[in-house]
Specification:
Number of strands: 0
Oligomer: single chain
Structural class: mainly alpha
Number of helices: 3
Order of helices and strands: HHH
Radius of gyration: 12 Å
Strand content: under 5%
Distance between the termini: 26 Å
Helix content: 55-70%
Largest sheet: none
Amino acid sequence: MGDGRDADPTVNAAAWSLTSERVVKKPEGLDLEHLLDLIERDMKDAPSISPFAPIWITEMSKRLDH
């Protein structure tokens, strides 16, 4: 797993799309905390609401419940 950044925004979008699908379908074996950190980092520079916001919000809410 890389850092979630590539020079080509299309490659970034594809990578995050595949990653989000994997998180929903088979999260076992993924470092979800690291992924959330990457999403949080990248959302700071996002020009609009990220399509990953619902996933991030849900996971951050789970963190607060623990």
